[in-house]
């Protein structure tokens, strides 16, 4: 097949039909951005589902607030076309989870380097009253050559647009995040919890995952705590 058969045009983009990644929030595809003659990654989200539309609107708003965050995924353009929302971003080598699986585990030096960058990205958000609430290796994009790590995926994030500091409050936000990386209180139905503290828990699990190569996949509080306590030293 020729290139024309493998892509379709939406606005200034020639979108590939090859899916790089897919999840509840939508699918990530490779795209050619014609004005700059560059290759980008584009998240495509259906706006028919009200929950997905809300996640797209949330991610678009938070991406704008985080545009100066040097440790967040650089967003190029956000737009809508027919029944879909599109978020174009820089294309990276891999995600942190794929890198961990490939390497079995990361060296302490590399783990600390990535972790420091991830923490800076999340700290930027916290200082702007935003909690990520979906910190997990598959939401960390990595440039292996430069050693850079970037936080991505703000669809589940919580933005407190008041004068109250997000770090001081308890909120009923429901169960958010990736199984195995959620703080125990997030898993309790109807619980009020502090989203900044929940992010800090998730950060710790990501660090443990990098160093140990162990992925937490249990969704009950008891199993999650038991898995962490049972890890070999």
From TrEMBL:
Q: Which GO terms describe its molecular function?
A: ATP binding; MAP kinase kinase activity
Q: Which residues form the Protein kinase domain?
A: 14-233
| Entry's family note | Belongs to the protein kinase superfamily. STE Ser/Thr protein kinase family. MAP kinase kinase subfamily.
Has UniProt tagged this entry with the keyword Nucleotide-binding? yes
Annotated PANTHER family: DUAL SPECIFICITY MITOGEN-ACTIVATED PROTEIN KINASE KINASE 5, DUAL SPECIFICITY MITOGEN-ACTIVATED PROTEIN KINASE KINASE 5-RELATED
In terms of Pfam families, this protein maps to: Pkinase (PF00069)
The lineage's top-level taxon is Eukaryota
Q: Report the protein name in the record.
A: mitogen-activated protein kinase kinase
Reported EC number(s) for this entry are: 2.7.12.2
Keyword Lipid metabolism set for record: no
Q: Read off the Gene3D superfamilies from this record.
A: Transferase(Phosphotransferase) domain 1
The reaction(s) annotated as catalysed by this protein in its Swiss-Prot or TrEMBL entry are:
L-seryl-[protein] + ATP = O-phospho-L-seryl-[protein] + ADP + H(+); L-threonyl-[protein] + ATP = O-phospho-L-threonyl-[protein] + ADP + H(+); L-tyrosyl-[protein] + ATP = O-phospho-L-tyrosyl-[protein] + ADP + H(+)
Under the heading SUPFAM superfamilies, the entry gives: Protein kinase-like (PK-like)
From what organism does this protein derive?
Answer: Vannella robusta
Could you say which enzyme class this protein belongs to?
Answer: transferase
Which keywords appear in this protein's UniProt record, sorted alphabetically?
ATP-binding, Kinase, Nucleotide-binding, Transferase
């Amino acid at each position: 097949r020729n290139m024309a058969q493998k892509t379709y045009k939406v606005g200034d983009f020639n979108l590939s039909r090859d899916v790089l990644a897919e999840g509840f929030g939508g699918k990530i595809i490779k795209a050619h951005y014609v004005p700059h003659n560059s290759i980008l990654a584009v998240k495509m989200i259906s706006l028919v589902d009200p929950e997905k539309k809300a996640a797209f609107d949330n991610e678009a708003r938070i991406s704008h607030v985080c545009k100066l965050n040097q440790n967040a995924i650089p967003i190029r353009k956000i737009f809508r076309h027919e029944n879909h929302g599109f978020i174009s971003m820089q294309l990276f080598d891999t995600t942190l989870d794929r890198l961990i699986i490939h390497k079995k585990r990361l060296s302490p030096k590399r783990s600390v380097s990535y972790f420091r960058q991830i923490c800076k990205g999340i700290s930027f958000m916290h200082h702007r009253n935003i909690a990520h609430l979906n910190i997990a290796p598959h939401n960390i994009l990595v440039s292996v050559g430069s050693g850079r790590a970037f936080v991505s995926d703000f669809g589940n994030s919580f933005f407190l647009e008041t004068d109250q500091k997000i770090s001081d409050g308890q909120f009923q936000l429901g169960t958010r995040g990736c199984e195995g990386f959620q703080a125990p209180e997030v898993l309790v139905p109807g619980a009020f919890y502090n989203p900044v503290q929940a992010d800090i828990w998730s950060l710790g699990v990501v660090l443990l995952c990098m160093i140990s190569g162990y992925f937490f996949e249990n969704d009950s509080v008891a199993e999650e705590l038991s898995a962490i306590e049972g890890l070999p030293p």
